[in-house]
């Protein structure tokens, strides 16, 4: 079931186009990453999804319905750092937050527990580490037991310890079946915590799908046949292999192709040989995740 559906969303701020015809769908139980460099439209997308901003065109639906007070209650959001009171305890701060949100105060204890803060609940907020402060911010999104969490750059400004704590918490929440939408400019973060990703660049969607297929560290191979042979038989043989894609001529001669994860260059060599194509050269190019991300957003 689609928890969130964005259909052809566009948004301009004066002369700046922040989002151009963005469509995407977040399925129940997924951890969906919105990945893109600064200014690519991630925060705008979250703002439109949550109804904090108004779209110039397009539509948003949650649980198959337009955004309403009722659908909003099923979504916990962390768009900017909440203002907690430094001298109040974690628990007192969450009780206040529950009051402001009209959320059941009975959900405070569970939120503290999920965030791993039960043992420190009576300590003042000011005594917390950066990671604990952010975990408390995440706990406040859990008040009222929403089905979905929307988080904008949840590890921004944290030290490495805090980053690790917050990522672990996000994974724990995902393990509990929450659907989570996260905006981040960190490839590493998306790769570590997300099941799905949409790559945004200058307000446009560049790619979307399961992290394993969009950001898979798949290899490319460069293939050469003897110069006096036509590449037609090679191209034909490649087209017959479902695990080979994106065949392109190389500037230095020969062709390159992408191998689906789990398939090797040796396997390709054998398959081509079996179909009568003898290679004069076969070279593997390992592509890093960064290289793929840069390629997507270049
Ligand atoms: N209130 C605003 N007024 C004018 N321009 C804006 C406003 N908010 C965002 N923009 C512009 O819209 C574009 C998209 O911004 P947005 O904040 O959605 O991107 P982002 O990917 O979340 O980046 P960042 O991580 O830096 O927040 C940028 O060019 C930004 O400068």
From TrEMBL:
The keyword Repressor does not apply. This is ABC transporter ATP-binding protein. Residues 4-227 form the ABC transporter domain. Pfam families: ABC_tran. Keywords: ATP-binding, Nucleotide-binding, Transport. GO terms for molecular function: ATP binding; ATP hydrolysis activity. Belongs to the ABC transporter superfamily. PROSITE patterns: ABC_TRANSPORTER_1, ABC_TRANSPORTER_2.
């Amino acid at each position: 079931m689609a928890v969130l559906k964005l259909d052809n969303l566009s948004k301009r701020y004066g002369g700046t186009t922040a989002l151009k015809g963005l469509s995407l769908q977040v399925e129940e139980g997924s951890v969906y990453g919105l990945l893109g460099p600064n200014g690519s439209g991630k925060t705008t997308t979250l703002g439109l999804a949550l109804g904090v901003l108004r779209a110039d065109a397009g539509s948003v639906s949650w649980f198959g319905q337009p955004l309403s007070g009722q659908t909003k209650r099923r979504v916990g959001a962390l768009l900017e750092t909440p203002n907690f009171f430094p001298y109040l305890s974690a628990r007192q701060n969450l009780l206040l937050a529950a009051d402001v949100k009209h959320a059941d105060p009975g959900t405070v204890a569970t939120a503290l527990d999920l965030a791993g803060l039960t043992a420190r609940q009576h300590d003042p907020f000011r005594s917390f580490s950066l990671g604990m402060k952010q975990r408390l911010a995440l706990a406040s999104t859990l008040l009222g037991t929403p089905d979905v969490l929307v988080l904008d750059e949840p590890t921004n400004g944290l030290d490495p310890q805090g980053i690790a704590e917050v990522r672990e918490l996000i994974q724990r929440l995902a393990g509990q079946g929450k659907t989570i939408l996260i905006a981040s400019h960190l490839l590493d973060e998306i790769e570590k915590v997300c099941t799905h990703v949409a790559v945004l660049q200058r307000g446009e969607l560049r790619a979307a799908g399961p992290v394993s297929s969009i950001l898979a560290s798949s290899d490319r191979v460069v293939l050469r046949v003897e110069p006096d042979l036509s590449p037609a038989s090679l191209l034909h043989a490649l087209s017959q292999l479902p695990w080979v894609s994106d065949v392109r001529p190389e500037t230095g001669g020969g062709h390159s192709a992408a191998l689906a994860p789990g398939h090797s260059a040796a396997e390709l060599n054998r398959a081509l040989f079996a179909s009568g194509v003898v290679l004069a050269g076969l070279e593997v190019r390992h592509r890093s995740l960064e290289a793929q991300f840069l390629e997507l957003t270049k």
